[in-house]
Write a structure and sequence with these properties.
The protein has about 400 residues and is α/β, with parallel strands linked by helices. The protein has three domains: about 100 residues, no CATH class; about 50 residues; about 240 residues. It is about 50% helix and about 15% strand. Strands 5-4-3-6-7 form a five-stranded mixed β-sheet, sandwiched between helices. It has a two-stranded antiparallel ribbon with strand order 1-2. The chain is elongated. The termini are far apart. The relative contact order is 0.09.
Length: about 400
């Protein structure tokens, strides 16, 4: 015991000396690594003592030497001596059998780096440079797979009964499947709670974006407890509005004005686009729906003969494009476009942009989920002026939006 104490004191003194000299205490040359090794081996011996004491007088179990394994941690890699018992039923808790990477902040750091978009190869290089620990890409993949149960739990979690505003859109990625690279759509649903906070309600992967799949997505929301949505903001995908109305018939549906404008300009000659846009702004920026419709009439008089397809599109979709006029300006800014969810998508793409193709759907879901986990840290506060906004919504929707005061 005295020898052990002397060894421990020597390690402690080494750590103090490195600290005074401003040297790194972590990594292969740091003093923390042998200190950690000493601590763990002592703790394992104590665990075995307890295990043998619990079996005293029953099985006659006793010590049976030790086994050695290479353990990797944020303090560096080292050989760990794990004591054994004769019956082989000793199950250590502090460092479990077959555990070679300590469940400390190193795993959290690996998952955090992966969530920032770093490749497994870059993470391996970073860990080796920082801690002197070499971890293979296969092991790193296994570590990141440990969040899969959390993803599944998150996907099936109960949701609020009512959401004030919900945006629906999709991102598109390449995924390897059966030896081929396929295009996949990641359907995302972003909502605003009664308290005015953003919440990602769900993410779903399919081969293409379509109204039929959105119907199944909305059904999933309903099954998870969402009984009502007040306002739904979508793009102009065919059948999308019908899918929403089938599950949430009371929802106000606002089609994205920006999408409509982009699609319109595809059919307007470049020499006319600036003038056409100036006239179109008088429509969608009008103070009231009545004024907007008057300006739409004027737009048709001026441009209808030249661009009948464009004007017809605005006419046919007007009932979905003009929903936002019934609300005050603060609400209009939120719902006349899907920019809120597109902003979320832009942040996600900053993380996923380095990936040309994902190996599986789950590999894609893992990275987006981790990116979302970082992004949502900024969603702790209600939207600006939300108290005024929710008061206006409560007047319009009455009993459908019951506020706790």
């Amino acid at each position: 015991m005295k020898e052990k104490l002397t060894e421990y004191e020597a390690l402690k003194n080494k750590a103090l000396e490195q600290f005074r000299q401003g040297k790194h205490l972590l990594g292969k040359d740091g003093a923390f690594q042998p200190l950690l090794k000493e601590f763990l081996e002592s703790a394992l011996q104590a665990e075995l003592d307890t295990h043998l004491d619990d079996q005293a007088g029953t099985k006659g179990n006793r010590r049976n030497g030790s086994s050695t394994k290479l353990v990797k941690s944020a303090e560096g890699s080292f050989e760990l001596e794990t004591p054994r018992d004769r019956l082989g039923d000793f199950e250590p808790e502090i460092v479990r059998k077959r555990e070679t990477i300590l469940a400390d902040h190193l795993e959290d750091k690996i998952i955090g780096l992966y969530g920032l978009g770093m490749s497994l190869r870059d993470i391996s290089k970073h860990i080796e440079e920082m801690y002197g620990t070499n971890i293979s890409a296969a092991t790193l993949s296994t570590i990141t797979d440990r969040i899969i149960p959390k993803i599944k739990e998150w996907q099936g979690r109960p949701l609020d009964e009512v959401y004030c505003i919900v945006w629906m859109d999709a991102m598109h990625y390449k995924v390897k499947e059966e030896g081929k690279v396929k295009s996949k759509a990641v359907y995302t649903i972003l909502g605003i709670t009664k308290e005015g906070r953003k919440e990602l309600l769900g993410m779903y992967i399919a081969e293409s974006e379509g109204a039929n799949f959105w119907l199944s997505v909305l059904t999933d929301l309903q099954n998870r407890g969402v009984s009502d949505i007040l306002i739904v903001c979508i793009d102009n995908l065919k059948g999308f509005s019908e899918a929403v109305a089938a599950i949430y018939p009371g929802a106000d549906i606002q089609t994205c004005i920006v999408h409509q404008i982009r699609n319109s300009l595809k059919y307007v000659a470049s020499k006319n686009q600036k003038e056409f846009m100036a006239d179109l702004k008088l429509v969608y920026q009008a103070d009231t729906k009545e004024i907007a419709e008057q300006q739409l009439d004027e737009l048709e008089k001026k441009w209808g003969a030249k661009y009948p397809v464009v004007i017809s599109s605005w006419r046919n979709n007007w009932h979905k494009l003009s929903c936002y006029f019934k609300y005050a300006k603060d609400v209009r800014k939120l719902i006349y476009t899907t920019n809120t969810i597109e902003g979320f998508h832009r942040q996600v793409r900053k993380v996923t942009k380095t990936k040309t193709a994902f190996t599986t759907d789950m590999a894609l879901m893992k990275l987006i989920y981790l990116a979302h986990r970082n992004i949502r840290k900024k969603w702790t506060q209600p939207l600006q002026n939300w108290s005024l906004t929710v008061s206006q919504l409560s007047i319009i929707f009455g009993d459908r939006l019951k506020l706790s005061i």
